[in-house]
Amino acid sequence: MTELSMPSSETGTGRHPKAIVGLAVAALLAAILIVWGLVSRSEARAALDREASTAGVTTVIAARAQTGPALEEVVLPGQVKGDYETPVYARTNGYLASWKVDIGAHVKAGQLLATIESPEVDQQLRQAEADLKTAQANAIVAKSTAARVASLVETQSVSRQEGEDRAAAAAATAAQVASNQANVARLRQLQGFERVVAPFAGVITARSTDVGALINAGQAQGSELFRIAAVGKLRTYVDVPQSYASDIRQGTGADLQFPDKPGKLFPATVTRTASAIDPTSRTLQVELDIPNADGALFPGAFTQVHFKLPPSGHGVQVPSNALLFGADGVRIAKVSRQGVVNIVPVTLGRDFGTSLEILTGVGANDQVAINPSGVLASGDNVRVVEAPKPKAAS
Question: Which of 246, 274, 336, 379 could, after both became Cys, cross-link 285 (CB 3.0–4.6 A)?
Fold first, then answer.
């Protein structure tokens, strides 16, 4: 009789623990999924609550006010002139007989520049010299006559009145001699002006006459003969705005830049100032000296004068789009660290294009709103977003 085989108790007990482990893992995964879902839902609800709580708060972009540099470069136009520079005029009338120098000539003081023919002066001098000789002869006769009459008065040969008359005549002829001598000296000096000479050493920068030209003494229009300039040292004249005038004084240094010499700076020093503001232009005239021993620079040139000066007004700089315009004037919306708005009036300084100088109302490192809304009011709470810091203008 065949025996039936029964499953062993060991086999049954080996399969049952594996099933239990599988069920446990499945249950654990299900619990993890449930917990993850609950956490995600909670975070989403919290984010939604935060968004809802901030939806009613205005967001502003804010930038910090920047202090200007300790020194800023101020560039002003200047006019260069010679150390001495003057036109040369004639001091006597006549015709130009010859000129000895032309433009660009280097001359010494007292060097002959031109000669003038003035026959009228020559004739007047001859006449004056003849009148002087006549007066001198008359004076000699009157003096000797007065002496003889004086001796006769002592012997009572002639009246005392006669003696006094002769003495007065002698004094009158002596005065006439002095008058004629002065006239001769004057005409000789005028004749000396027929020689036009250089008043100082320099360069002839202009010649405005030619041989045969009619010469009129003085500064009448068209009577300038030459123009001369001393170029060993040059002077630059620049008009400094009133806002910088108090920072310019004798000894202040500057650099000069010329259009025909790009990239090269010429050092100069303030020699003197006018010490007064021009009421027309509201500027201070300043003179700077430039050494020019090599003759590289020319009088009459245009130059740009670069000064290093403290900032005018000592204000702060904010972006140009931070201003609020209204009936109350120009204002700025300051934003505190806690996000509270404060609308303040300000005083504007210079305009640098992308930024403005604020003289009063805003301090260094104050936060100001950029492109502020017109509905902002002092005390409003806002959410601040930092803007890139503006570069300080100079």
Answer: 274
The CA distance from 262 to 260, in Å, is 6
Pairwise CA distance, residues 14 & 23, whole Å: 16
Give the CATH class of 228-309: mainly beta
**Is this prediction's pTM over 0.85?**
no
Give CA separation, 282 vs 78, 189, 221, 246, 330, in Å.
16, 46, 32, 13, 26
Asked if 236 contacts 78 with a C-beta cutoff of 8 angstroms, the reply is: yes
What pLDDT shows up at residue 181?
92
pLDDT of res. 91: 86
Contact between 264 and 276 under an 8 Å Cβ cutoff? The reply is no
Q: For the chain, give every domain's residue range.
A: 119-193, 228-309, 314-386
Q: Are 71 and 308 in contact (CB under 8 A)?
A: yes
Quick: pLDDT tens for 45-81. Answer: 766 656 655 555 678 888 888 877 667 788 999 999 9
* Rounded-to-integer distance, Cα 82 and Cα 229, Å: 5
* Residue 391 CA to its chain's centroid (Å): 24
Domain covering 314-386: architecture: Beta Barrel (2.40)
